[in-house]
Amino acid sequence: ADGRELWRIVAPGWSVVPQPAVGHGLVIYNHDYDHPELIAARLGGHGDVTDSHIAWRIKRGAPSTPSPVLVGDELYFVSDDGIVTCADARSGETHWVERLGGNYSASPVFANGHVLLLSEAGAATWINPGKTFSVDGTNEVSGQTFATPAFAEGAMYLRTDEFLYKIAYPPGR
Question: Which residues lie below 8 Å from residue 44, measured CB to CB, with a gap of 6+?
């Protein structure tokens, strides 16, 4: 309410781009652009809670740019170089790791019961959420795609370096 600091975690790094995910009493965030790491911190406490409130850390496959997305108990994230991971949000235990290839700046998005991963080259991979890796489909758009797609009123809005797409079903919606 007044802007006073309640608690903090001291971690090295600079130029943090991603947004944190919050759930299960944790804030899960990336830090350090050059040597990315995901940290899950328990909410609450006072002052420096670095030693007392970190629940887990993941370095392998941690992204510098894309934000993680929380879907139920699972956390999904994709590294800048195309390694997608599903981990238990509470424990940090990895369920699976898969290499998609390509480079990624857009954050994973949960929409219509799927996790969408969009490469910078416009390759979209739709995965089924869960503890086993399962691709439901793929498609592509032309142009470079750095921005995370947005979803509203049954449509997906996707910006490339060439166009702004509105993808909806049925068409014209």
Answer: 7, 53
In the chain (173 residues long), the average pLDDT of successive 10-residue segments reads 92 82 96 90 94 96 95 97 98 97 96 96 97 96 94 93 89 61
Q: Residues 45, 64, 99, 124: is their CA dihedral positive or negative?
A: positive
Whole-angstrom distance, CA of residue 173 vs CA of residue 160: 21
pLDDT the model gives residue 16: 74
For residues 119 and 82, is the Cβ–Cβ distance under 8 A?
yes
Q: Where are the beta strands (DSSP E) in 81-163?
A: 83-88, 94-99, 109-111, 114-118, 123-127, 135-140, 150-152, 155-159
Type of residue found at 30: N
Contact in structure between 142 and 101 (CB atoms under 8 Å): no
User: Does the reported pTM lie above 0.85?
Assistant: yes
- Is residue 67 within 8 A of residue 28, CB to CB? The reply is no
125 closest CA partner among 112, 139, 113, 111: 139
**What pairs with residue 118 in β-bridges?**
124
Tokens of 31: 């830090």
